[in-house]
# Entry
Amino acid sequence: MSARTSAPVSARVVRWIILGAVALLMLVPLYTMVINAFKPQAEIIANPLGLDPATFTFDYLWAAITSSKFNVIAAYGVTLFFVALVNVCCIALAAPVAYVIARGRSKWHMGLLLLFVSGLFIPGQVTLIPVVFVLRLLGLINTIPGFILFETAATLPVTIFLFAAYLRTVPRDIDEAAALDGAGRIRAFWSCIFPVMRPIVATVVVLNSIGVWNDFVSPQIILGPSSGIYTVTTGVYAAVGQFATDYTVVFPTLLLAVLPAMIFFVVMQRHIIGGLVTGATKG
# Structure
């Protein structure tokens, strides 16, 4: 084997070692949460990274499922309802905007795209307080419509960015063929262009769903405890409490909160990669 051939192999080995070490480091918090959901309090404190089969039990997880402080089934239902509404509203708004931007050739279209993309650089926590004042002025604070509007607005920048990048790879011949058949721009988009966007739509749905599912600050402030509406994250906060030290409640409840998102991501991760890769190589 020549030196030229061995060099790339060595570089690949070193790269995989570094990536493996980083992945293991990032998995430590997840591993800690999972194994401590099945351990008694004394063992969690004494040996948080170890697992003794003799003390392994599902009792704490079952207690979290049946807890009166955290109705996990209701929280799942409410959060899934929000996830579905945000995805529908976001895609319905972002897709036509991205289509106009992608098909436009003037500097104004690029400026419009940059305007939306600039929202990616503004932390949501910075805009939350002004949003609360606006929603209160409109009478939408502590309401579901107010929360849906905020979450939809928060997901629009990345959605428009991904949609516009993907639509630029879709041939304009489809638009021309639809126009020859007598379809207007709106009908041409929804009937001919939007079905082609299925890979990137799946990617956006996965990213937005995980973002809405894991969001804590927005529902805690916009919905508020007075509304009586709890998502998974705010339900966990209400069940665990601000100063809780009972880890046999904390870890099982946290596991119940993140488990659906973890399963959803594992099952749908190929759509994330597939949608982004297709958008980068198609055309």
About this structure: Residues 279-283 have pLDDT under 50 and may be disordered. The longest helix spans residues 247-281.
